[in-house]
Specification:
Structural class of chain A: mainly beta
Distance between the termini of chain A: 41 Å
Shape of chain A: globular
Distance between the termini of chain B: 37 Å
Largest interface: A-B, 21 and 24 residues
Strand content of chain B: over 45%
Order of helices and strands of chain A: EEEEEEEEEEE
Shape of chain B: globular
Helix content of chain A: under 10%
Number of strands of chain B: 11
Largest sheet of chain B: 7 strands, mixed
Number of helices of chain B: 0
Radius of gyration of chain A: 13 Å
Helix content of chain B: under 10%
Oligomer: heterodimer
Radius of gyration of chain B: 13 Å
């Protein structure tokens, strides 16, 4: 059974204080690993798809990396508007659905 | 691109009534759509997966007769909560994926409150 574990559950940062969120996964044949951002009361917003170990993708202050067992979402010099819950998910080859982690709630304090 | 809408954004109904939620892909053809439920401070719980023109595949523990899902076109899926009760109150979110894509794109969600 596919599993996704995210850590920490919650993270509080000062504005400008860089950090990383972790997503550990087990999947039988990775078709894709996804990062989403979810604001309270809204649907998740797609950020990145990673396909193979060593791959990296960037968007503004966010950079996602992938190894064979985990993915990191690096946040460089975060701003208060980066505050949200960040969700990681994996899709196994041959399957329609994805498995989501429970998310990391990020709070960036001015 | 890849915009998904949901209607209504919130609904309040009386116990015993049925409620229909619409999910539309606005700028792409959604060959597969998903319906999720999310409780406060919890992650997404997949309810069902539907392919256009086919019956939905429900996750274990989800009542098919209570949560009716229809995916009759490549841009529209509906979720009908039949004979709703207070325990059905939740945040319902749909997502859509086009053919050959890996990513799902989510709608804004519908807050259902059953009195």
């Amino acid at each position: 059974e596919d599993q996704v574990t995210q850590s920490p559950e919650a993270l509080r940062l000062q504005e400008g204080e860089s950090s990383s969120l972790n997503c550990s996964y087990t999947v039988s044949g990775l078709r894709g690993l996804f990062w989403y951002r979810q604001d309270p009361g809204k649907g998740p917003e797609f950020l990145f798809t990673l396909y193979s170990a060593g791959e990296e993708k960037e968007k503004e202050r966010l950079k996602a990396t992938l190894t064979k067992k985990e993915s990191f979402l690096h946040i460089t010099a975060p701003k208060p508007e980066d505050s949200a819950t960040y969700l990681c998910a994996v899709r196994a080859s041959g399957y329609q659905k994805v498995t989501f982690g429970t998310g990391t709630k990020l709070q960036v304090i001015p | 691109g890849a915009v998904v809408s949901q209607h209504p954004s919130w609904v309040i109904c009386k116990s015993g009534t049925s409620v229909k939620i619409e999910c539309r892909s606005l700028d792409f053809q959604a060959t597969t759509m998903f319906w999720y439920r999310q409780f406060p401070k919890q992650s997404l719980m997949l309810m069902a997966t539907s392919n256009e023109g086919s019956k939905a595949t429900y996750e274990q523990g989800v009542e098919k007769d209570k949560f009716l899902i229809n995916h009759a076109s490549l841009t529209l899926s509906t979720l009908t909560v039949t004979s709703a009760h207070p325990e059905d109150s939740s945040f319902y979110i749909c997502s859509a994926r086009y053919l050959a894509a890996n990513e799902q794109f989510f709608g804004p969600g519908t807050r259902l409150t059953v009195l």
